[in-house]
Amino acid sequence: MAILLESSLRIKRSGNLERMPDGVAGVRNTLDRMIQMANAASLNVDVRSAAEDIVAFVDGKDFSGQVEAIQSWVRDHIRYLRDHVSAETLIDPVLLLQTKAGDCDDHSMLVAALLMAIGFTVRFQAIAPNDPNDFQHVYAEVKLGQNEWYSVETTELVPVGWQPLVVNRITRYI
Predict the structure, then answer these.
(1) N or C: which terminus of the chain has fewer CB atoms within 10 Å of its end residue's CB?
(2) What residues contact 90, with CB distance under 8 A and at least 6 apart?
(3) d(C-alpha 67, C-alpha 72), whole Å
(4) What is the pLDDT along the chain (174 residues), one digit of tens a residue?
(5) What's the gap between Cα 34 and its chain centre?
(6) Which domains does the chain carry?
């Protein structure tokens, strides 16, 4: 059994321990919790203010420019830091704006919350790069245009829309 530790600003850096199923069921459970946390954070005034500040220099109707600004800001200002050796952790996006360190799921939730706060539709992609049952990474995708989804990867120096090669993926819509 994997353990999920959720850290939230509302509980002052304490956390909730929760047993998670192993394998794909655990990945789905984690993604569902990430959706809840990103949704809640997207309604937070501090997250909205941060998103407004990040895109302040981008034209109001340059939506791809706004996405690029948020991707760059999270990549450049939130340090990548791995989870505990034996537990999956999820850091509330509001808290992550303060602590400025988290892993790919934390980055993804913050990107999602920032983008949703300024009107974008977002989803999560969990990926298994080699073994179809070994999910090792997650990133956000944003909808631009009618039905075009673009990755917003913030743990690597890649452009919006970059897609890693994978053997399996789980998509969760927010």
Answers:
(1) N
(2) 4, 5, 6, 7, 30, 33, 34, 37, 105, 106, 109
(3) 9
(4) 444 555 554 445 555 656 667 788 899 999 999 999 999 999 999 999 999 999 999 998 999 999 999 999 999 999 999 988 888 889 999 999 999 999 999 999 999 999 999 999 999 999 998 888 889 999 999 999 988 999 999 999 999 999 888 889 999 999
(5) 8
(6) 2-173 (3.10.620.30)
What size, in residues, is the chain? 174
- pTM to 2 decimal places: 0.89
What angle, rounded to 10 degrees, do the helices at 23-42 and 45-54 form?
80
How far are the Cα atoms of 32, 85, 111, 141 from residue 123, in angstroms, in the given order?
A: 11, 27, 10, 5
Number of Cβ within 10 Å of residue 108's Cβ equals 29
Residues whose CB is less than 8 angstroms from the CB of residue 118 and which lie 6 or more positions away in sequence, other chains included: 48, 51, 52, 55, 66
Handedness of CA 143, 161, 123, 133 (dihedral sign): positive
